Amino acid sequence: MEPQLFAWGANSYGQLGLGHKEDVLVPQALKDVSCKCRDITSIAGGGGHSAVTTGTGQLFVCGGNKDGQLGLNHTEDVLHFTLCTALSGFCVKQVACGWDFTIILVGSGLVLSCGSNSFGQLGLPQISGPCLIPQKIESLKEKVVSVAAGLRHALAATDRGVVLQWGTGMASRARRASQGKALPLFLTAKEPCEVAGLEGVKVKTVAAGSYHSVSLTDEGHLYVWGSNKHGQLVSRDIFLAEPKKIDTQCFSHEKIGAVWSGWTHLVAQTEAGTVLTWGREDLGQLGRRAGHQSPESAQALGLCCNTPASVPCLNGASQIACGSEHNLAIVGK
Fold it and tell me: Which domains does the chain have, with CATH numbers?
């Protein structure tokens, strides 16, 4: 059976690629996708825009574009998936969509960005206004292997295992929580800045929520920092200014093989295939029954579900994706 691309949900910017701006309540197949669906290797969504990458390294984009986040050299919304021709000389490996910007990792390990730079989220301090064509982040000198985008901050992991962060999206929450203490430089940087506190570990994958960041090391450990308003960092602090390792006891001492982040919740899969979720749960985004936590521990953190717990029906999932407050998974063949 020929694979198909389906889209559904909010569509006020044309981000579903269906040729209109009406919300779509049930998954609808895209009929006229300019790339063949069987060639699509990954899909990503941002605040109001979408992106797909193909096996040949092309990037197709659609949706909201008022800050040039589609990289098409204009600011009109785009209702169908359209090839980003500005990247024709590159082989796109990964794309991460933030609220109003896009981070693009290409095969050579270079990173490019486009869209709004009002919080320094493009990593291009020389650009003040919106950036309509993807620009290389020249200050990223090392080869990058993984990128992630939060609401207004971004992350990259290099092939040496170092993590860099830029964009000031987390800074106001950090200042409120720091009570006058100096903030680590990477929380206020407008170009890639090494994340302090990860010395001695090698990170292979990064993920980001709206106001938090996550790193997965090659030894299968998770480090988290940023806002903990919903218990997503498995801590009793409201904000972690520096990375903190999540105790392996939380995962029954199993190594983590993959991690994904929504805006305020996290999903991890162990190397053995167990899937665990934690963080905000008011909209069912953890996939568990409400009230899983004891009232005492829930009260201690406000309205959080700060203990990773497994979701057995997802064990062995071959693919998982997090939206802002929802998830998708492929389980079984």
Answer: 1-138 (2.130.10.30), 143-333 (2.130.10.30)
253: Cβ contacts below 8 Å, ≥ 6 apart: none
Going by C-beta distance under 8 Å and a sequence separation of 6 or more, which residues neighbour residue 1?
none
Encode pLDDT of 10-36 as tens digits: 999 999 999 999 999 998 888 766 667
Please give the model's pTM, rounded to 2 decimal places: 0.92
- Token duo for residue 74: 């204009």
User: 279 has which bridge partners?
Assistant: 265
Reported as type and span, the H/E element at residue 78 is strand 78-83
* CA-closest candidate to residue 165, choices 202, 125, 196: 196
CA 25 vs. chain centroid, Å, equals 24
Task: Give the residue carrying structure tokens 């292979």.
Answer: 204
Q: What is the pLDDT of residues 155-200, one digit of tens each?
A: 999 999 999 999 999 999 999 998 888 999 999 999 999 999 999 9
194-220 in b/e burial notation, b at 16+ Cβ within 10 A? bbebbeebebebbbbbbbbbbbbbeeb
> Is-contact 62 30, C-beta < 8 A?
no
Please tell me the distance from the alpha carbon of residue 35 to that of residue 83, in angstroms, as a whole number: 8
Among 68, 92, 88, CA closest to 78: 68
User: DSSP label at 185?
Assistant: G
Phi, psi of 216 (to 5 degrees): -115, 125
| Residue that has been written with the tokens 């001695």 in this structure | 200
Give φ, ψ of 103 to 5 degrees. Answer: -115, 130
